[in-house]
């Protein structure tokens, strides 16, 4: 899976040159997941740009995260997805998503520099083209997203499974130059966030609780809601 070469600075749109990533991603006081006081029924389900701006970028710069322990750090590509802890798949609308920070391993082949996405028993196969991640509803590209499906066996004849991964990387062109050093540049190139979805399960349980004395009843057919 070849990596595209980064855009040159001269090609960066003026809007991206003026974009203050440090300011918009700043978190004053991060919390642990257990300390987040939310109404019943809420769960961790970040948008694509929130994953990149508030988690990946801040992690790369060793800054405060909104929730400090919700995204674990693990070598994702050293494990088959069914080896990952079942308890991690508790996020997203269906409570069947797990989030991880991880490094990618880049190797050289006859096709040039590629990213290794094979595991002990299979491989992650790219599903479609890499997409830009926009900030909010605007035009600023803060990162890039790849979608992959896990296959058991050896490429290209593996058997498709119900594990899907969204891999997010940071757009290096929006990182302020004054924070860059060799270590940060290396992280920007190799450090990603993975959202892994286990489509074969759903841990969702209705969480709305009626007040004491109330009960729910089915709506009769033809009866207005």
Automatic annotation (TrEMBL):
GO terms for molecular function: DNA binding. Residues 38-199 form the NAC domain. The keyword Ribonucleoprotein does not apply. The keyword NADP does not apply. PROSITE patterns: NAC. InterPro entries: NAC-dom (IPR003441), NAC_dom_sf (IPR036093). This is NAC domain-containing protein. It is found in: Nucleus. Keywords: DNA-binding, Nucleus, Transcription, Transcription regulation. GO terms for biological process: regulation of DNA-templated transcription. It comes from the Eukaryota. It comes from Prunus persica. Its main location: nucleus. One of its GO terms (cellular component) is nucleus.
């Amino acid at each position: 899976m070849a990596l595209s070469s980064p855009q040159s600075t001269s090609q960066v749109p003026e809007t991206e040159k003026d974009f203050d990533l440090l300011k918009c991603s700043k978190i004053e006081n991060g919390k642990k997941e257990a300390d987040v006081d939310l109404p019943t029924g809420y769960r961790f389900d970040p948008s694509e740009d929130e994953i990149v701006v508030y988690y990946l970028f801040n992690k790369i710069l060793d800054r405060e995260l909104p929730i400090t322990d919700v995204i674990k750090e693990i070598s994702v590509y050293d494990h088959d997805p069914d080896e990952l802890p079942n308890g991690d798949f508790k996020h997203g609308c269906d409570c069947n998503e797990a989030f991880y920070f991880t490094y990618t391993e880049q190797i050289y082949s006859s096709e040039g520099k590629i990213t290794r996405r094979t595991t002990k028993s299979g491989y992650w196969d790219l599903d479609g083209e890499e997409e830009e991640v926009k900030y909010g509803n605007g035009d600023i590209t803060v990162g890039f997203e790849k979608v992959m499906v896990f296959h058991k066996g050896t490429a290209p004849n593996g058997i498709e499974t119900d594990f899907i991964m969204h891999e997010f990387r940071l757009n290096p062109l929006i990182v302020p130059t004054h924070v860059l050093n060799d270590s940060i540049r290396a992280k920007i190139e190799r450090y990603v966030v993975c959202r892994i979805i286990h489509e074969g399960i759903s841990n969702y349980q209705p969480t709305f609780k009626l007040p004491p004395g109330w009960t729910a009843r089915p709506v009769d057919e033809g009866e207005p809601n």
